[in-house]
Structure prediction request, 232 residues.
Amino acid sequence: MRKYNYKILLIFVFIFSPAFSFENSKIDLGNFLINKYEVTIKEFREYAARNNIKTKAELNGGGYEWSAGWVKRDNWFYYSPYGKKPDSVLEPAVHINKFEAENYCKSINGRLPTFEEWSLAAYKQVVDSKKFSKGKIYKYPSGDKAINMNSQGLLNYNKHIDVTKLPEGINGLVAMGGNVWEWIDDQNNNESLTAGASWWYGGRKTSKEGAQYKPSDFFAIYVGFRCVFDKS
Prediction:
C-alpha cells in the first residue's frame, strides 16, 4: 500500500487552493485605480481579524433580507451571509454598512469611489480591449446590452456568488453589474448611494440610472463594495 505524507498534502492544499492564492488586482483607469472584484469575505475577514473588528451586523445579531419588508436574519454576517458557511470565501462581503466599507478601504490605502469614478469604470471603456471599443460609453457594465451579469433573467443564480466565477465586463472589471450593490461615497444627509444592483434585480437596473440611495448605516444581504486608489 502506498503511503502518503498527509501533512505535506494539507500544506499543498492550503497554499495552492485558489481561495488562498486570490488577489483582488487593481485596474488602472488613468486618474485612479479600482479593484477588479468586489471585496470578498476572505479579504474582509482577514482585515477584521487583524483589527479585532466586530461589524454592526454581528453586534445586531444578524443582517437583513427583504421579505414583504426588511427582516433581520439571525447569524447572517459577512462570513456567514445566509446564516451558514458560504459556498466560497471569494463571495462578496455583504452585511457591511457604508462606514465599515469606508474603513476597510482606508486600511489598504484606498477609499470608496465617487459616483463619477464608479460610473466611468462601469460604463466607459478606458483600457485597451479586444471586446469593447476604447473611449465608448456603454449602457451597461456588460456593454450595449444587459448580458452575462448575475441578475435575474440573465445568469440568474438567485444569490450572490464567488466573484471569480463571473465574466469580465467593461475595463476588465467583474460584477460592476449584478451580484451585489456597491457602496458609493456620494452621500445625501444620512443616505449613501449604491450602484450596480444586486442579483435580486433584472439587468436593466444595472444601468447608471439604476443607482439608488440607502441609509448609510444599513447592512443587508444585497450590498457589498469595492475600493478605489489614488495615484501617488
Observations:
- Residues 16 and 214 are 39 Å apart (CA to CA).
- Helices lie at 6-16, 41-51, 56-60, 98-107, 115-123.
